[in-house]
Write a structure and sequence with these properties.
55% of the residues lie in helices and 3% in strands. The chain has a three-stranded antiparallel β-sheet. Helix 12 crosses helix 14 and helix 13 runs parallel beside helix 15. The longest helix is centred in the middle third of the chain and has 26 residues. Bound molecules: s-citryldethia Coenzyme A. S-citryldethia Coenzyme A binds next to helix 15.
């Protein structure tokens, strides 16, 4: 009997998990049982603790957790040399993937996959990623890297190390919300990549480097940058409608930032980020891109409804683009910021995968010829 092919493993369940529940029909998202809409009251580091430990931290637990992160801030000297030797124009995601793999070389115990060693590596990656991204941006601007400040948390330090200015509370609040919204999302392509890598019992650094590569793609984490590039190319609110109509008229035309493999309604994270962007737009000089985004969402909703595809709605990446623009984050840094957030979710899934491992190895249905006769090279003409 011919097997059923599930293209892109759509709808296939490959393991059980306690980390994240997505209700695609109702547009709801839960991390360890907490509704994402409630978690926007927390900080990103609180949510990292939740993802790893299964419960929100008490004040003391959070203080201790933050203290555990501090020693992991410094970028190893040789990794810093890597950042300095990369050619101008290097894609920040290539930098991040290379650095993630290189960090293993400077870790005294990179290969052990027991829970304590994995947690130590997780703590390091959660602060190394923002540090690497911010430092890389300053180096390519010809500016000296900045040391993290003890009076700022993870989100505040990222903005400080990126821009060299102490960020205001509003910007820190916005980035915390954006980071926690991007932290985790079940078996998305990059998390599945991480779990598939870990299922061979390779080390955590190798699995995370693989996940960075997967996130980079424009159908996944690269979509936020693609959204902003599209808005820049269109240029004005007035040209949005024609762009959408022209794009939808093309075979397999895709408007970046819309649609999702699981959500059949508006991505709850997209709605939260739309509200955040609306607040930022009240005072931002870059509000134009948010207004263009609202117009694009209006036209897409009308056109998708007209095509009987009302399930195609704005996703997480759509409004994150205008939020990052208004935070002053460079466009090619949007996906690295996604990786800064998602590395915590990837690590949560690695803990789960290693703890109850089964090698991930699906099948391909062979449709070629069989039994072909081998002809020696001399006789092949
Ligand atoms: C993320 O998985 C996750 O959880 C990911 C993520 C996370 O937190 O990790 O949520 C983050 O990656 C969000 C998605 C970001 N990507 C984009 O915005 C890229 C644009 N979106 C599409 O490429 C698409 O919607 C996907 C890739 C997101 C989902 O693809 P599917 O599930 O394979 O659906 P599909 O491409 O087969 O589309 C089904 C139909 C299409 O019909 P056909 O053209 O094949 O006849 O839906 C329509 C399309 O008509 N459609 C779109 C569309 N997305 C789907 N039409 C126009 N524009 C789009 N963006």
């Amino acid at each position: 009997m011919e097997p059923t092919i599930h293209h892109g493993l759509a709808g296939v369940y490959f393991a059980e998990s306690d980390i994240c529940h997505i209700d695609g029909e109702r547009g709801e998202l839960f991390y360890r049982g907490y509704d994402i809409r409630d978690l926007t009251e927390a900080t990103y580091v609180e949510v990292v603790y939740l993802l790893w430990h299964g419960e929100l931290p008490t004040a003391k637990q959070l203080e201790d957790f933050r203290a555990e992160l501090v020693p992991h801030y410094p970028i190893p000297d040789k990794v810093m040399e890597l950042l300095l030797c990369l050619p101008p124009g290097t894609d920040p995601m290539h930098m991040l993937q290379a650095a993630a793999a290189m960090l293993a070389a400077f870790d005294q115990n990179p290969d052990e996959i027991d829970p304590d060693n994995l947690r130590r590596i997780g703590l390091s990656l959660v602060v190394q990623f923002p540090n690497l991204v911010a430092t890389f941006e300053r180096l390519r601007r010809g500016e000296a890297p900045l040391e993290p400040r003890s009076d700022l948390g993870l989100a505040g330090n990222f903005l400080w190390m990126l821009n060299g200015e102490v960020p205001n509370d509003a910007a820190i609040r916005v980035l915390n919300t954006a980071l926690l919204l991007h932290a985790e999302h079940g078996s998305n392509a990059s998390t599945f990549t991480a779990r598939t890598s870990a299922s061979t019992l390779t080390d955590a650094y190798s699995a995370i480097a693989a996940a960075v590569g997967s996130l980079k793609g424009p159908l996944h984490g690269g979509a936020n940058e693609a959204v902003m590039r599209t808005l820049e190319q269109i240029g004005s609110v007035e040209k949005i409608e024609q762009y959408v109509l022209d794009t939808l008229a093309k075979p397999r035309g895709r408007v970046m930032g819309f649609g999702h493999r699981v959500y059949r309604v508006l991505d709850p994270r997209g709605k939260i980020l739309r509200d955040v962007a609306e607040k930022l737009a009240e005072t931002s000089s870059e509000a134009k891109y948010f207004h263009m985004s609202l117009e694009m969402e209006r036209v897409m909703e009308r056109e998708m409804n007209a095509r009987g595809k009302s399930n195609i709605r704005a996703n997480l990446d759509f409004f994150s683009a205008s939020v990052y623009r208004m935070l002053g984050i460079p466009v090619d840094m949007y996906t690295p910021v996604f990786a800064v957030a998602r590395v915590s979710g990837w690590m949560a899934h690695l803990y789960e995968q290693y703890a109850d491992n089964h090698l991930v190895r699906p099948r391909l249905q062979y449709r070629g010829e069989l039994g072909k006769r081998f002809v020696p090279l001399a006789e092949r003409g």
